[in-house]
User: Fold this.
Amino acid sequence: MTKPAVLILLGPPGAGKGTQARMLEEKFGLVQLSTGDLLRAAVAAGTEAGKAAKAVMEAGKLVSDEIVVNILRDRLAQPDCARGVILDGFPRTTVQAKALDALLAESGQSINAAINLEVDDAAMVTRISGRFTCCDCGEGYHDTFKAPVAVGKCDKCGSTNMKRRADDNAETVASRLVAYHEQTAPLIAYYKARDVLKSIDAMGDIDTIAADLAAIVKQATA
Ligand code: AMP
Assistant:
């Protein structure tokens, strides 16, 4: 049996990791694992991890490696992950990257590719501040770049229930970008040294980026 694929999407907040991960999930049958989504669910459920993470997330800082690695380990152990995973927003520190290597080694797995979505910092604040999501199916939208055909109505499932993230405001976005540059950007060199780094220009339109990404995923999982 072939080993389940493990793909990582790297890039600053607003680079389009979530949007692209969902498209890859549909196209390749992979499971999207977003530690941001898992943490938001823990906050909403009021778990111990969620209580500890809430204020840190609201400040745009990184949640402790211990909490995030535990959440990811539990999720990776779910049976659906045997289809292969696309990690979105994890790892975000070198400690997390090493923990992931160790977790994968336990089951004889390894990383197929870490794909860096290259974007300009200046564009990130605009991208993030206009975005919203369908509460019912999770489809992502943007005031300027991807508005629903009918105002306020999800193109995919018809729901009129939309939400914006609490941390998608200009002040928190600035902290999230600092956290990215200080703690996450070093992972580009980490994966380059392990010969699994791929980079794509993620400033263009969503469909072109999706096509570039799909070509890399196809090759990395062949
Ligand atoms: P995201 O949805 O990926 O933008 O993450 C939202 C917030 O969740 C981040 O600003 C962090 O506070 C927290 N978070 C998500 N993933 C991680 C991670 N791998 N390590 C630390 N904090 C994380």
Q: What stands out?
A: The radius of gyration is 17 Å. Residues 82 and 155 are 30 Å apart (CA to CA). Strands lie at 6-10, 31-34, 85-88, 113-118, 131-134, 140-142, 162-163, 197-201. The pocket of adenosine monophosphate is lined by residues 13, 35-36, 39, 56-57, 60-63, 68, 89-90, 92, 96, 167, 176 (CB under 6 Å).
